[in-house]
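Budget justification note: compute hours in this period were largely spent on complex prediction jobs such as the one shown. Inputs:
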Amino acid sequence: MASIKDVAAEAGVSVATVSRVLNDHPSVSPDARTRVMAAVQRLGYRPNAVARSLRTDQTRTLGLVISDVLNPYFTELARSVEEEARSLGYSVIIGNADERPEIEDHHVRTLLDRRIDGLLVSPTDGGSPGMLDAARAGTPMVFVDRWIAGVDVPVVRADGRTAVRDLVAHLHGLGHRRLAIIAGPAATTTGSERVEAFREALAAHGLALPDAYIGQGDFQAESGRRATERFLDLAEPPEVVFAADNLMALGALDAVRARGLRVPEDIALAAFDDIPWFVHTDPPITAIAQPTGELGRAAVRALVDRIEGRPPQSVTLPARLVVRRSCGEPPPVRTTPVQPPPEQPTPPEPTPAQQSPVQRSQS
Amino acid sequence: MASIKDVAAEAGVSVATVSRVLNDHPSVSPDARTRVMAAVQRLGYRPNAVARSLRTDQTRTLGLVISDVLNPYFTELARSVEEEARSLGYSVIIGNADERPEIEDHHVRTLLDRRIDGLLVSPTDGGSPGMLDAARAGTPMVFVDRWIAGVDVPVVRADGRTAVRDLVAHLHGLGHRRLAIIAGPAATTTGSERVEAFREALAAHGLALPDAYIGQGDFQAESGRRATERFLDLAEPPEVVFAADNLMALGALDAVRARGLRVPEDIALAAFDDIPWFVHTDPPITAIAQPTGELGRAAVRALVDRIEGRPPQSVTLPARLVVRRSCGEPPPVRTTPVQPPPEQPTPPEPTPAQQSPVQRSQS
DNA sequence: CTGAAAGCGCTTACAG
DNA sequence: CTGAAAGCGCTTACAG
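Corresponding output:
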């Protein structure tokens, strides 16, 4: 592979001049520039990013450590992160922790060894030692979705409190009184927060959240299945199961189905994190949707601000309830046009008539 | 951040000795080793991978360029690739092309600039110029899932021919005679191959595949929706729609539903690529399942063989049909045990009694 | 505007 | 077994 020396020789200039041309340094004669460009062309030269990084001490690379790539929520997050990073001239290396702190640790260390310019983390259960060390050592870092209390790092996340309140109001309105939740790991903020929001919303309706109605999950499908089985074995099973993420909802659905029960007739189901498939499950699933793409983009902007010396900003965006049929609501009345209506973009701001936070699904 | 010089000073040895200790070079005295390890500990020293890469001309990093991360098939592929790579001591950088050759090109160039040791590619439509150049230039490369004809690169993929034949037999047995397919981009191998396999399988039953029954898709949901609408507008619409990937099946489902039609009563649906959600869609969807994890692992092994100087092997693994209810089959008879049966691992080899290639879904 | 030279943090023949 | 030194491919003050 051609190096900068080869280009210099080919163009009849020094490597310094080649470097200046490549980096758009102003003091280069037009003639030198032309010859260098031509040499670059002829040789198909591409600068060695490894050498450049060693010299400049920056890699223009961001690390993204997420808890589970197989979760569609994180996949979408990863995608928007990469897109925004690319538009700002950064690459991103994704590390998938699979909800396991040791693997999170492995990725954080590897990423740091590669001298990435900054780290975006959605910490697993409690966070791994290496990740905590990095934060303390002052590595440019931003938490997305989940965060660790007491660690001084900007956080970009969705606030589901209002949406959970809307969900509980919806459930209560449908006559449900025994509501259960499948929580994520208590040590993750999204694990505990969603339970707390749920508990508070219940309290507002005079309902309690007994311990037996709190299933302990780990954000994976299998744990949703087990928690649901336990609920169904109760002397007084809940009327509703609210899964704190979409994979545990999948597991819950498996469990309900394995018992030969029906949703929502025998038991209602709702989930945190909306995904395209929820429109087509049997029945369509009521879910709380996060502004995932915007979260990813805001996180990258905060991190790049931090890296480039601007003050980074924590961001909290609202999640919203999307009502479907899995909680017992009759299907929304709809006409069936022969031609589907043209795509209608969501209006940027709700008009007064649309202020209800409860948004009805299009489907 | 501490460098090797700091460690050397702290341990009272030369940087050469530190390097030898770090790389497990045999000729180091026990005493020197001990002092170096202690210094490393005290300083929290981690070798700079960028510097090491520049010096050794290897990054122990693999690039993976996939056509669409949001597609669960590719997400799973990416995950297994990363796992296998990690176990072999490599990191992987994922580039998401979003089915667009320009973006594929961007990622290939960026990855090459970073001097990754090898490239795993699932080429978009026809492949991008940069990717083709890299292949010709002798960059260690392996194609996964899709490949480009005439490019001398090992291919790791699933063969769906048998499964498609099983699918058509299944459909024919259910009485369907007008079968349509939503194809992927003709320039992708998976796009054209699946159509050809389908056509051949139909021919074996004396059925034709008229042009009007070939929808042109791009592996994205929206294209599945449009193709399905076109089918439904036909004077004689098909009885079955077979989508060449899971996202187009989602779109097809959207379209069918928007017309107020039912699956499978009004139209049957099947998909290439099985995903966990297909168990819970309304109705559960009959699909062709690829051995995705094994594909990812085999691809990494082939690439690492190539990188480390061993002869890489192309691998073709069979896909298999998973029958559910979306094509009109009555739900399989099942008892509903109060306790779910214990997890049963799939036997490694089919016994004679199980040789039927058609596998019935567990659900 | 240009080039010679130093140096980023490592590894590795080479000499001892 | 150990260290001094060269060199990987760049960038960038410094001198001219």
